[in-house]
Amino acid sequence: MSETPSPGEPAPEEPTAGAPTEGSSLRRASLMLASGTVVSRLLGFVSAVMLTQTIGALGSGANTFALANQLPNNIYAIIAGGVLSAVLVPQIVRAHSHADGGRAYLNRLITVGLVVFLLAAVIATLAAPALVALYASPADGATGRGFTEQELALATAFAYWCLPQVLFYALYTLFGEVLNARKVFGPFTWAPALNNVVTIGGLLLFGVLFDADVRDAGQWSPDMIAVLGGSATLGVVCQALVLLLFWRRAGLTFRPDFRWRGVGLGATGRAAGWVFAMIVVMQLGGLVQTRVASEAATADDASLMVMRTAWLLFMLPHSVVVVSMVTAYLTRMSARARDGDIAGIREDTRTASILTVLFMALAATGLIALSVPIARIFSAPAVDQIAIVIAAFAVGLVPFSAYFVIQRVLYALDDTPLAFWLQAAHTGFFVAGALACLALPTAWIVPGIGLVTSAAGAFQLVLGASTLSRRIGAFGMRTVWLRVLQSTGAGVLALVVGLLGSGALGAFTSGGFARETIPGAIVTIALVGLLVVIVYGLALWALRVPEATRLARHARERARRRR
Fold first, then answer.
1. E strand segments, 159-312
2. How far apart are CA 79 and CA 121, in angstroms?
3. Which of 255, 308, 537, 539 is most buried, by the most CB atoms less than 10 A from its CB?
4. Which residues contact 529 (CB under 8 A, 6 or more apart)?
5. How far apart are CA 88 and CA 177, in angstroms?
6. Cα–Cα dist 101/5, whole Å
7. Which residues, in sequence order, are bridge partners of residue 140?
8. What three-state secondary structure class fits 145?
9. Residue 441, number of CB atoms within 10 A of its CB
10. What DSSP designation does 4 have?
11. pTM of the full structure
């Protein structure tokens, strides 16, 4: 990816015939990120299917492990997640202009990161009982909702095994963002594939060794807990440490340096302070979400594992398309922000937003139309519970992904205070709605959380888009909103066709082909999914959406070149 050189750097050579331009480099970077993300997410999908097939989607084992294995993600997000992803790339790009190419900055940054993350992981692990009590709603004898004493004890045992992941999630992001800033994009998105391979191996081992009733908290032995929780943590360890193999390729070396003053860490800290506040606010929303969802932890109702499964499916298209594309754009936008190229940032924002809307409208349509056969792949007993929650989340996929673009633009501009206030508004909206879900019947608590999440995302997108327009000037929002309307119209038409197709194959009928067996569900997904894509594409063509016609023309040209 080409960019304006920093002071002291040699100017890049002009592209010659066949040499990569900035656009082609960005496309290659996006393709590398997307391909790694696709493989990692597909393996993650296989891992999630095996998990629900091994310990179920309903009952004590499923919900307690879902809670415990989410805790390290929550703690990591608070101590480092948003800070690392939002702040490091822009700061490392700027540090590259230092006389030493940013080497001292990186050595000191990584040293302080290692120390802080290790301490955080140790403290979090020791605090496992308190964290479980914080996130899980205890059983209420009057309503039958919540975690029983046995379930709280099982969740705590899982948490002791899972919470060391905090250190390695942080190291994975730290090492990966350094590589991304040096334009070595692939390893960061390919490393989770190794994590999933290790996790799949652990689930296979669990299935071979144990044959207990996993829905009953009292049936879990220490060995069962160790194999399931330990293999999950081992996967994260491998995901982080494998990135070190690619540092030399990026021209990086590391020497611990405890002199943390004098190379710009203060600037990182100031920017990180707002991001840290934003992540804390976000995690408060996550705390409310988990605690409300744990109220539904009964033997037959959707609770934490169902919500986790539906969210994984919701995030699959977002991660494959949007995160990969925007991660590649972020480094370029950071450089443009450094050089004061606001016009370039506006153009990148408009392009990324439109492409996000077009792809995510199709993904949301597919998730809703195919929610039943997709859910059947994960769990036969919980097919309806999972399908309803998938649909509730999918309604908000477009605004969720579109706001992700806006948020990353604010990060590139180092406008973390604005990002914080937008997140605070979103969290306030969500918390009020999530708490209102407690008034619903138990079976509808988690679907209600999904709908509230979608509504909060739409609210945040409208607020964020109008605010960003004032921050950088008009970036074609009228065109973006037009694409939203066009993609929504195309999506509704494709959704009607998709639901009719799913219904014809028995998705909504007990014992129907689409839901009776996993092979039947896969065939339904393939046939109806293709139908949805064709109808959506034809609708966009009929609406003369220029970005869609350009993508189609580009695909035809690539197909001709391959012949």
1. none
2. 10
3. 308
4. 366, 370
5. 7
6. 12
7. 145
8. strand
9. 9
10. P
11. 0.83
DSSP H helical segments within 242-264, as ranges?
Answer: none
Amino acid at 367: L
Which tokens belong to 336? Answer: 């443009």
Mean pLDDT of the region 429-452: 96
3-state secondary structure of 8: coil
| Minimum mean pLDDT range among 211-220, 248-257, 353-362 | 248-257
Cα separation, 96 vs 367, in Å, equals 42
Asked if 61 and 212 count as a contact pair (C-beta separation under 8 A), the reply is: no
**Tokens of residue 239, six digits:** 């995901």
The β-bridge partners of 147 are: 138
Higher pLDDT, 262 or 542: 542
φ/ψ region of 38 (left if φ > 0, alpha if ψ in -120 to 50, else beta) reads alpha
Kindly report the CA angle at 346 between 344 and 352, in degrees rounded to 5? 100
518-542 and 371-378 are packed helices; what angle lies between their axes, rounded to 10 degrees?
150
Query: CA quadruple 121, 125, 130, 133: dihedral positive or negative?
Result: positive
Taking the C-alpha atoms of residue 144 and residue 140, their distance in angstroms, rounded to an integer, is 6
Task: Give the pLDDT band (50/70/90) at residue 24.
Answer: low
CA end-to-end distance (rounded Å), the chain: 29
Burial of 167 (0-12, 13-18, 19+ CB in 10 A): buried
Q: Torsions phi, psi of 380, nearest 5?
A: -70, -45
Helix (H) or strand (E) holding 484: helix 477-504
In angstroms, rounded to a whole number, what is the distance separating the alpha carbons of residues 418 and 275?
10
| CA–CA gap between residue 159 and residue 139 (Å, rounded) | 19
Looking at residue 10, the DSSP 8-state letter turns out to be P
Query: In one letter, which amino acid is 357?
Result: V
The Cβ of residue 202 has, within 10 Å, a number of other Cβ atoms equal to: 23
Q: Number of C-alpha atoms within 13 angstroms, CB side, residue 513?
A: 13
Name the strand (E) or helix (H) holding 432: helix 416-436
Token duo for residue 423: 């997140």
Q: Token pair 């991001």 is at which residue?
A: 275
The answer on pLDDT for 108 being more than 50 is yes
Q: Give the separation between CA 520 and CA 507, rounded to whole angstroms.
A: 10
Q: Say whether pLDDT at 19 is over 60.
A: no
Nearest Cα residue to 91 out of 494, 416, 402: 416
Instruction: Tell me the DSSP string of 385-418.
Output: HHHHHHHHHHTTHHHHHHHHHHHHHHHHTT-HHH
| Residue carrying the six token digits 């009228």 | 478
Contact between 174 and 115 (Cβ < 8 Å) = no
In which residue are the tokens 């606010």 written? Answer: 281
**Cα separation of 95 and 103, whole Å?**
8
Which residues have a Cβ under 8 Å from the Cβ of 542 and sit 6 or more positions away? none
